[in-house]
C-alpha cells in the first residue's frame, strides 16, 4: 500500500521519515521552493532541522504525485485542514484520508474526521493521534500511537500498513474519543505551562492535569465518546507527555504566558483555538469546564495569570 503525506511541517516530515522504513513515501509541500530545497538537500531546514530525509522519500509540490498513493496522511494544523481539503477536493474524492492533526475547528466546533466528511463526503476518513513529538519519531525513538477509524476493517488495514519499526499503532473505532483526547490535552498543556512559568510549582501542575483530565472526560462523554478511550494513548497518554515536556509548543506557549514573555506567533499552538472552541461549546451545553474557560481567556489575553489563579481557586467547594 503506497503512502503520501500532505503537509511538510514537523509532524508530516517525521511521519514520512518513519514510514520510509516500510517503502517509498511521497511528502507533499504546498511551497514549491521548499519542496525543491528539501528534495535536493535531504533536510527540512525550516520545520525539522538536523534530520536527514531517507532516499525513499520523494518531496514534491505537485499534488498529482501525492494523490497517486493509496493512503494520504493529512499533516496540517487543525484550523487549516478545511482550506487544504477544499483546495484539492476534486483529486481527494474517494481517497483514504488519515488526519494527523489535533484540535477542534473554531468556526464549526468539529474535529478532523467531521471536517473531512463535510468537505470530501466520499473519502474514507481515519485519524492518527497520541503521544509523540516529531523530533522523537524522526530520530527513530520508540513511540505508540492510536489509529482511529469507524470502519473496523479499514482500521485494521491502516494499523498494519502504518506501523513502522519504531512506531507501534493501536487501533480503535471510537473516532470521537480519539479526536477529543488529542485536541483537549493541548488546552491543559497551556494551563500547565502557565502554572510552571508563573512559579506555581509541580503540585499546582498535578492539580491542573487531574482536574483538566476530568473536564476532558466530561466533554468527550457529552459528545458521544466511549468512556474508556480517554484513558488510553490519545487522552491520558498525550496529556502526560504534553503537560510535562518543554518539547511541546503548547506547554512552551503556556510557559511564556506565565513568565509574561512574548511567544513566536508563527509557531503552531493548536490549544489556543481549541480552548476557545471547547469553552464556547461547554458554555452552550451547560457543562462545567472552569479550567478550559480560564485557559481560553488567558490565551486570548482576557485574563492575566493572577486573575486566572484567583478565578480557579475562588470557586465554590465541591465533591471530587
Ligand atoms: N509536531 C509534533 O510534534 C506533532 C504535531 N501533531 C499535529 O500535527 C499537526 C501539524 O503540526 P506540525 O506539523 O507540527 O505543524 P508545523 O507548524 O510544523 O507545520 C504545519 C505545516 O502545514 C502546512 N500547511 C498549513 N496550511 C496548509 C494548507 N492550507 N495547505 C497545505 N499545507 C498547509 C504548513 O505549510 P507552510 O510551511 O507552507 O506554512 C506546514 O508545512 C498539528 O495539528 C499538530 O497538533 C501531532 C503530533 C506531534
Ligand atoms: O501533540 C504533540 C505531542 O503528542 C505535540 O505537542 P505540541 O503541538 O504542543 O508541540
UniProtKB/TrEMBL annotation:
Protein purpose: Catalyzes the reduction of the glycolytic intermediate dihydroxyacetone phosphate (DHAP) to sn-glycerol 3-phosphate (G3P), the key precursor for phospholipid synthesis.
Keywords from the named record: Cytoplasm, Lipid biosynthesis, Lipid metabolism, NAD, NADP, Nucleotide-binding, Oxidoreductase, Phospholipid biosynthesis, Phospholipid metabolism
Residues the entry annotates as binding sn-glycerol 3-phosphate: 102, 130, 132, 185, 238, 248-250
Domain Glycerol-3-phosphate dehydrogenase NAD-dependent C-terminal: 174-309
GO molecular function, one term: NAD binding
Protein name per its UniProtKB record: Glycerol-3-phosphate dehydrogenase [NAD(P)+]
Keyword Cell membrane (UniProt): no
Sequence similarity: Belongs to the NAD-dependent glycerol-3-phosphate dehydrogenase family.
InterPro entries, per database record: 6-PGluconate_DH-like_C_sf, 6PGD_dom2, G3P_DH_NAD-dep, G3P_DH_NAD-dep_C, G3P_DH_NAD-dep_N, NAD(P)-bd_dom_sf
UniProt organism field: Ruegeria denitrificans
Signal sequence region: none
One annotated Gene Ontology cellular component of this protein: cytosol
Enzyme Commission number(s) from the entry: 1.1.1.94
Active site as annotated: 185
UniProt cross-references to NCBIfam families, sorted A to Z: PRK00094.1-2, PRK00094.1-4
Top-level taxon of the source organism: Bacteria
Glycerol-3-phosphate dehydrogenase NAD-dependent N-terminal domain mapped to chain residues: 3-152
Subcellular location: Cytoplasm
Encoding gene (name): gpsA
Lineage: Bacteria, Pseudomonadati, Pseudomonadota, Alphaproteobacteria, Rhodobacterales
Pathway membership, UniProt: Membrane lipid metabolism; glycerophospholipid metabolism
Annotated positions binding NADPH: 11, 30, 102, 134, 249, 269-270
GO process annotations (BP): carbohydrate metabolic process; glycerol-3-phosphate biosynthetic process; glycerol-3-phosphate catabolic process; glycerophospholipid metabolic process; phospholipid biosynthetic process
Binding site for NAD(+): 7-12, 134, 249
UniProt binding sites for substrate: 102, 249-250
Reaction catalysis annotation: sn-glycerol 3-phosphate + NADP(+) = dihydroxyacetone phosphate + NADPH + H(+); sn-glycerol 3-phosphate + NAD(+) = dihydroxyacetone phosphate + NADH + H(+)
Amino acid at each position: 500500500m503506497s503512502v503520501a503525506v500532505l503537509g511538510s511541517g514537523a509532524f508530516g516530515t517525521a511521519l514520512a521519515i518513519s514510514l520510509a522504513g516500510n517503502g517509498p513515501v511521497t511528502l507533499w509541500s504546498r511551497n514549491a521552493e521548499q519542496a525543491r530545497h528539501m528534495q535536493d538537500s535531504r533536510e527540512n531546514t525550516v520545520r525539522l532541522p538536523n534530520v536527514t530525509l531517507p532516499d525513499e522519500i520523494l518531496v514534491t509540490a505537485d499534488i498529482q504525485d501525492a494523490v497517486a498513493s493509496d493512503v494520504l496522511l493529512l499533516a496540517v494544523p487543525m484550523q487549516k485542514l478545511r482550506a487544504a481539503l477544499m483546495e484539492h477536493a476534486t483529486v481527494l474524492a474517494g481517497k483514504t484520508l488519515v488526519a494527523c492533526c489535533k484540535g477542534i475547528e473554531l468556526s464549526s466546533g468539529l474535529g478532523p474526521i467531521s471536517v473531512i466528511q463535510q468537505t470530501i463526503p466520499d473519502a474514507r476518513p481515519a485519524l492518527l493521534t497520541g503521544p509523540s513529538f516529531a523530533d522523537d519519531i524522526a530520530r527513530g525513538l520508540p513511540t505508540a500511537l492510536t489509529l482511529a477509524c469507524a470502519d473496523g476493517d479499514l482500521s485494521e488495514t491502516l494499523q498494519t500498513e502504518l506501523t513502522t519499526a519504531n512506531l507501534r499503532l493501536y487501533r480503535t473505532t471510537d473516532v470521537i474519543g480519539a479526536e477529543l483526547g488529542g485536541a483537549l490535552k493541548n488546552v491543559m498543556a497551556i494551563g500547565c505551562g502557565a502554572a510552571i512559568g508563573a512559579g506555581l510549582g509541580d503540585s499546582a501542575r498535578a492539580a491542573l492535569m487531574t482536574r483538566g483530565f476530568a473536564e476532558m472526560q466530561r466533554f468527550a462523554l457529552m459528545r458521544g465518546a466511549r468512556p474508556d478511550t480517554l484513558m488510553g494513548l490519545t487522552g491520558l497518554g498525550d496529556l502526560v507527555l504534553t503537560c510535562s515536556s518543554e518539547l511541546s509548543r503548547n506547554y512552551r506557549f503556556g510557559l511564556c504566558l506565565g513568565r509574561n514573555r512574548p511567544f513566536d506567533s508563527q509557531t503552531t499552538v493548536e490549544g489556543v483555538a481549541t480552548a476557545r472552541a471547547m469553552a464556547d461549546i461547554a458554555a452552550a451545553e451547560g457543562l462545567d469546564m472552569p479550567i478550559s474557560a480560564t485557559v481560553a481567556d488567558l490565551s486570548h489575553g482576557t485574563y492575566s495569570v493572577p486573575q486566572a489563579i484567583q478565578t480557579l481557586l475562588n470557586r465554590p467547594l465541591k465533591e471530587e
